[in-house]
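Lab notebook page, bench 4
Experiment: in silico fold of construct C2
Operator: M.H.
Input chain length: 385 residues
Purpose: comparison with the prior construct
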Amino acid sequence: MTNPSFLKNPSTKIPPWLQPLWDSLEFNALPNAVLLYGQTGIGKFDFAIQLSKALLCEEKSAAVPKPCNCCEACRWFESGNHPDFLPLVPETHGKFLPHSSVEGIEESSGGKKSKSSQSDETQDSSEKKEKKNISIEDVRSSIEGLSIGAHRGGNRVVLIYPMEMLRSDAANTLLKSLEEPIGQTIFILVADRLDRVLPTIRSRCRLLAVPRPERQTGLEWLNNTLLNKDKINVPQEELGSIYDEQGGSPYAARMLVLARHNKDEKDEAALAHLASRHLLQGLAKGAEIDWLEIAEKIHKAPIRVLLITQQRWVADIESVHQAGIVRYYPKQLKTLRELSSCINQPRLLRFWKNLLRARTYENHPLAARIQLEVLLLEYKQLFNG
């Protein structure tokens, strides 16, 4: 792969495909609420972290880019102690917030952890699981003091990620703050799925679409980051396969490579990848899939990941059928061609709609195994004429 100049500095915070979006922002003229949205794993959270830092930076010179990384505010931000930075994330995501260095949620599963995260690891394993949602109590505790002036007399930034994990009652509480803007308070909201953000919240925000990189650009960034920052060398063919399977999301691909390299059997990315492997092996069998066996192997994995894997597989079947093109699983082209030749198109369309419907409930505590069994049985029947 080529190694263009913009990739030679591994400490660069803004990846190349997001630089145009960054350059388009006027930090002194942002509205009170910004909603960043786009595909999972493309760098939205890291971008939001840097935007928060820039808005809190106290460098006065227009000639110095923000964040300057030198002022007292930037140092406080990096250490996770800035009093005017109010992050709202689920407990499961807290360890990815700024501490001694900024390692975004989407950027790395191997970043430094907070003191609270480190102490959590020493507690009894039977301890209550961390919350995956952002509750109304979390929102209230963060915004109840916003009417008081900022501690350092400048901006105050409230960062919320992911918006999909904001419970409905918490979203309504947030809406009240957005309807009555408080001076010098800026809300930065981040969502993987714009359609799951309340329309009333969307209408009160400046929407910023975060683009996915071109394949070559994303692969160059991923390869450079793994080599220079993580000290991991992955064969280019394997790296390209991982990148494609992650839907062209460089950060998601990096997280998976790190999880596999560290051989962390408890890492969620590694567990999800293993479950996806089992699922794909079953899907490749078409009508011969042992749907009960596959469901038994994978039902403990995050349902969201399993649904996305099925969506990508079905999308490739349809793409091969219509145009002979594979996007996600090029190594499976022969199998996909065979399956596409004997697919029942009306049933495939209904199955696709059912996958979309299942995605709307992926964050709810439903019986994942039953849901998987139903979908896998339906998939099996796509090939029965």
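Observations: Confidence is low (pLDDT under 50) at residues 1-12, 100-128. The chain has 16 helices and five strands.
Next step: discuss at group meeting.
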